[in-house]
Design brief:
Pfam families: ABC_tran. By secondary structure, the protein is α/β, with parallel strands linked by helices. Helices cover 30% and strands 28% of the residues. The protein has a single domain, classed as Rossmann fold (3-Layer(aba) Sandwich).
Length: 239
């Protein structure tokens, strides 16, 4: 079998404050295979956001191992983590995080700004990413504040794709969208999965989670695996 894109082993995350120590994640172990579409779900305060931050290299675990395409990111320093975020992870956020005064094409090109590629090559890469998410060509020179919510989210997905990352990490990508538009965005993720992209989607919506190949639930900092029929099994410190 192919090496997992994500391989997390025995992750703990403990935060220290004036009130003492808070053990937020307990012995989390799971993996994501290349081309898999996985949903991570859980209520507020469950540890879902902390796990997302670790997956996105925005935070590091207190103990345990996180291998991203075989690289132990848990051992990296800040500059190395920043490079991993820029080159190996594509982020899609609920609030889109697009720059409203810039064109669609320029927004998608942003992650390429620090590469050595000339502008024409960066433009070609951005066009390829926009084609992958199905945005019409006549929208490429529009400012993003001229787009609908669904179109903005497609631009955000294209921006996440432009560096050909190891994983697409989507945080509540349908949260600000109506049901019809959210359906269109989920169909975009399915099309990307069909091309071999690895997708990890964080959501509190059980209907959105059911779109994935597999569901991983976080409750009280412990991991529970589900299949899309709702059958639950515990792992890594589950009760």
């Amino acid at each position: 079998m192919a090496r997992p894109v994500i391989d997390i082993r025995g992750i703990h995350r403990i935060f220290e404050s004036d009130a003492g120590f808070a053990h937020v994640l307990h012995n989390i172990t799971f993996s994501v295979r290349p081309g898999e579409f996985v949903a991570i779900t859980g209520p507020s305060g469950s540890g879902k956001s902390t796990l997302m931050n670790i997956l996105g290299c925005l935070d590091t675990p207190t103990s345990g191992t996180y291998l991203l395409e075989g690289l132990n990111v848990a051992e990296l320093v800040d500059d190395e983590l920043a490079e991993v975020r820029a080159t190996r992870i594509g982020f899609v956020f609920q609030s889109f995080n697009l720059l409203p005064r810039m064109s669609v094409l320029d927004n998608v090109m942003l992650p390429l700004a620090y590469t050595q590629a000339p502008r024409f090559q960066r433009e070609m890469m951005a066009v390829h990413a926009l084609q992958a998410v199905g945005l019409p060509v006549d929208h490429y020179d529009h400012r993003t504040n001229e787009l609908s919510g669904g179109q903005m989210q497609r631009v955000a997905i294209a921006r996440a794709l432009v560096n050909d990352p190891a994983i697409i990490l989507a945080d509540e990508p349908t949260g600000n969208l109506d049901s019809h538009t959210g359906r269109m965005v989920l169909e975009t993720f399915h099309k990307l999965k069909d091309t071999g992209k690895t997708i990890v989607l964080i959501t509190h919506d059980s209907h959105v989670a059911a779109e994935a190949d597999r569901i991983v639930s976080i409750r009280d900092g412990r991991l529970y695996h589900e299949d899309t029929s709702g059958i639950i099994s515990t792992t890594g410190g589950g009760r």
